[in-house]
Specification:
127 residues, mainly alpha, 47% helix, flat
Length: 127
Amino acid sequence: MLRRDRIGRAVMEAWPLVRTTCVTQKTDMSLNLSAVQRIAHLARIQLSSDEMEATLSQLNGIFALIEKMQSIDTSHVAPLTTPLAAATDVALRFRDDKVTEADRRSDYQGVAPSIEEGLYLVPRVIE
């Protein structure tokens, strides 16, 4: 597994703690080296001091972008039903929820090795 994938997973595991601490208390979302060490520990990777500094810089850049996006007032923006609705008028095509095929259950179960009360019986796999 790539080191970046493991760091990403560890960041996602640590995100609820970061979000709860920083967002609810309206504090800066930047991390410090001890947080990067904790994330590296969660990802089960060994980082050199140079890699820790680089990772710290990258993660703080990501959190700065998140802070910037959270500062935008979106109360006047209607939710999209599809991403295409932002560019064009998209009519959602709903169909009636009705049966369009004949019931062929008995045909399918006729070739099954064993059935009981309309259910397929299979050999036990786990003891």
